């Protein structure tokens, strides 16, 4: 079985991706390879940040790996929070503060169009490949649901009447931005 390192310490992302690949590839975490360092996300685009992560692991550990960067892009906020999604309200990973800031900024606006975007950088035998997934939707006026993480309680994907946080992981993994990008990655890996 092929092995692949996912350059993340985010347990939610690992769980989503593990569920998606369902044993087709042995997925290793940063902990599995003894990487305890935080990989700085200093890029200004999702593609740059994903690439920074995968090259950091590949250069240091010489293993096939992939990194991703994801975020929420809101049309009325000129694409914000974008690459700053995890730290939009200041501290990294304060989901409640991030959601509160978005809802406050959209309070008087009628345009609620948004999308989640994921970009994956895969390093396979020293060659870099990119895969992108986008899911369009709208931002709700208030939180709904307790599943998922991040902005899931306020993001309602187009064609659905529930937020990501009201979906089971299995249902979310059929349509999410990360699922779309991962499907492209898995299609590629099936050819190598």
Could you explain how this protein is built, in words?
With 192 residues, this protein is α/β, with parallel strands linked by helices. The protein has a single domain (3-189), classed as Maf protein. 31% of the residues lie in helices and 23% in strands. It has helices at 11-21, 46-61, 95-106, 169-175, 177-189, and strands spanning 3-6, 26-28, 65-74, 113-124, 127-139, 155-157. The chain has a six-stranded mixed sheet with strand order 2-1-3-4-5-6. Helix 1 packs across helix 5 (177-189).
Could you give a short account of the major beta sheet? 6 strands, mixed
Name of the CATH architecture = Alpha-Beta Complex
Order of helices and strands: EHEHEHEEEHH
Could you say which structural class the secondary elements and strand pairing correspond to?
Answer: alpha/beta
- CATH topology label: Maf protein
What's the count of strands? 6
Supply Rg.
16 Å
Strand portion: 15-25%
Helix content: 25-40%
Uncertain ranges: none
Adjacency order of strands in the biggest sheet: 2-1-3-4-5-6
Number of domains: 1
How many alpha or pi helices? 5
Gap between N and C termini: 12 Å
In one word, what is the shape? globular
């Amino acid at each position: 079985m092929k092995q692949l390192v996912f350059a993340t310490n985010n347990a939610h992302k690992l769980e989503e991706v593990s569920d998606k690949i369902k044993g087709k590839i042995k997925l290793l975490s940063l902990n599995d390879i003894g990487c305890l360092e935080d990989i700085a996300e200093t890029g200004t685009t999702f593609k740059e940040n994903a690439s920074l992560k995968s090259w950091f692991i590949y250069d240091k550990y010489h293993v096939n790996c992939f990194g991703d960067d994801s975020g929420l892009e809101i049309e009325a906020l000129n694409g914000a929070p974008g690459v700053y999604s995890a730290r939009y309200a200041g501290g990294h990973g304060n989901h409640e503060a991030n959601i509160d800031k978005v809802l406050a900024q959209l309070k008087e606006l009628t345009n609620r169009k948004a999308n989640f975007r994921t970009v994956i950088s895969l390093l396979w035998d020293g060659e870099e490949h990119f895969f992108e997934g986008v899911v369009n939707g709208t931002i709700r006026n208030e939180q709904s649901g307790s599943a998922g993480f991040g902005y899931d309680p306020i993001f309602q994907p187009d064609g659905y009447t529930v937020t990501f946080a009201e979906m089971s992981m299995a249902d979310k993994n059929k349509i999410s931005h990360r699922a779309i990008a991962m499907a492209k990655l898995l299609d590629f890996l099936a050819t190598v």
